[in-house]
Write a structure and sequence with these properties.
Distance between the termini: 36 Å
CATH topology of the largest domain: Aspartate Aminotransferase, domain 2
Radius of gyration: 23 Å
Largest sheet: 8 strands, mixed
CATH class of the largest domain: Alpha Beta
Helix content: 25-40%
Shape: globular
Length: 464
């Protein structure tokens, strides 16, 4: 079986040796009694937030050591300069971060819409549904116009929704803490599934819209470190580091004291999802405190307490003078090289074999320069005139050829807006994160052959 559907990292890419070394370093510190005196400190706030024993219940915000090391690493890359460790909260991954954000900042009866970009990361919708907001889900189309600098959510469509709601919505929040009228969820970097990266102008305009309309922006930023560009072109500045939404919120003179953005981040795509360590970055310390103040988090402490100290050894700058970089930088460089090779191998086959008029990540399947510059996925759209039964083609491809591809149907948002964007009939997602390059090529060749055969059969039948 060739699995081009699975959005998981290949097991061979896990940095096992580095993790072993980091674990050994941490265990030596633990055995030395480095944290043994922490519970004897007189300053209770210091004990609560900074120096809890790694095997003790964690502080609500999680390990201060990890949060401080994360910011040191990010500042070395020129980002997060205005953040403080207490604006970060440790999580057990991005899925938990999203769930907790919805629990802490939305309220049934007050939060009127939860906006999701379509095509959407389908598992995120389940989190909103589980929290009781199924009837609030609202699909927002994706714009991908590089010439005009408009790449990301359709802000005209989003504005029409919130301004239309404002004329008739008068309910008030009743739960403790800050609750938002709207929540917007999206993946701004190498999006799942479309692969696009929002432009700077789109990010700034979205933040301004959120500040004006009591909206919380939750962005999954789990692919940000997986840039794998191998080309340069006039449309895409592959060396550009786009501003994070939290940083834009902080930089804006119109931001409220509480803020409007949460950056949801994780080490799952970098170090391995089994570690279950991630973090959120919030626009204020007040927001971070409310995020971490949920009953389960306050009772049991921040998740992944002990594991976060091991991850910290991979994020912090090395003690060895010969090590001039952070271990995670080397890990990311290795991932970027592998994913670039796989992506380019798949694209070469797609560009040569897809029907004329097909799109890869919203652009003509003609140039690798306009393909996704990172992440895990390629999003393919067949021509409108193809008229083939794509779900049947993908089903037979799985059963007869042993190739798994993720159909477009799963990326619809079951929303209060238009029920369907028609992703099932023309679209599918390909992952280059799981299989090696040779299997990626073999699987895509079988896929394109199956599409071509269905295309030929359809036209032969029509001519009879």
């Amino acid at each position: 079986m060739i699995d081009l559907a699975r959005g998981h990292p290949s097991t061979r890419l896990f940095p096992v040796e580095r993790f072993q070394k980091a674990t050994q370093t941490f265990l030596e510190k633990l055995a030395s009694g480095q944290w043994d005196g922490s519970t004897q400190l007189s300053d209770e706030s210091l004990v609560r937030e900074r120096d809890r024993h790694p095997m003790q219940y964690g502080a609500d915000l999680g390990s201060h050591d990890l949060r401080a090391s994360i910011l040191e690493w990010e500042r070395s890359r020129g980002i997060s300069r205005n953040l403080h460790p207490d604006m970060l909260g440790v999580t057990c991954g991005a899925s938990y971060g999203l769930m907790n954000a919805v629990t802490q900042f939305a309220e049934q009866g007050y939060t009127s819409r939860i906006f999701m970009i379509t095509p959407a990361y389908f598992l995120a919708a389940r989190i909103f549904i589980d929290a009781g907001f199924e009837d609030c889900l609202t699909a927002i189309d994706e714009v991908n116009n590089l010439d005009d600098g408009l790449v990301g959510p359709d802000l005209k469509q989003l504005t029409a929704y919130v301004e239309g709601d404002a004329a008739r919505s008068k309910s008030e929040a009743t739960l403790a803490g800050k609750r938002f009228k709207y929540i917007f969820y999206g993946v701004p970097n190498f999006s799942n599934p479309s692969g696009i990266t929002w432009t700077e102008s789109t990010r700034k305009d979205l933040v301004r819209l959120a500040q004006k309309h009591d909206m919380l922006i939750i962005t999954d930023e789990v692919y940000e470190g997986l840039s794998c560009s191998t080309v340069k072109n006039e449309h895409v500045n592959t060396s550009e580091v786009h501003s994070r939404m939290v940083d834009l919120d902080l930089a804006s003179k119109k931001t409220t004291g509480f803020g409007n953005c949460i950056g949801n981040r994780s080490f799952s795509k970098y170090l391995g999802p089994g570690l279950r360590v991630g973090y959120v970055a919030c626009s204020s310390t007040q927001m971070a405190a409310q995020f971490s103040a949920g009953g389960a988090n306050h009772s049991g402490g921040a998740t992944s307490q002990l594991t976060s100290y091991i991850v910290r050894e991979l994020v912090r700058e090395g003690d060895d003078s010969r090590q001039s970089t952070y271990p995670i930088v080397e890990i990311l460089a290795e991932l970027q090289e592998v994913y670039a090779l796989r992506r380019d191998a798949m694209l070469e086959v797609l560009f040569a074999s897809l029907p004329k008029g097909s799109l890869v990540n919203g652009h003509d399947a003609a140039s690798i320069a306009l393909a996704p510059q990172g992440g895990y996925f390629l999003w393919v759209t067949l021509p409108q005139h193809s008229h083939i039964d794509l779900p049947d083609v993908l089903s037979r491809l799985r059963d007869e050829k042993g190739v798994l591809v993720m159909p477009g149907l799963g990326f619809e948002v079951k929303s209060s807006g238009p029920e369907s964007r028609g992703w099932a009939s023309r679209c599918f997602r390909l992952s280059f994160s799981w299989e090696e390059a040779d299997k990626c090529v073999k699987g895509v060749k079988k896929l394109c052959q199956a599409i071509d055969e269905a295309w030929m059969h359809k036209h032969e039948t029509a001519e009879q």
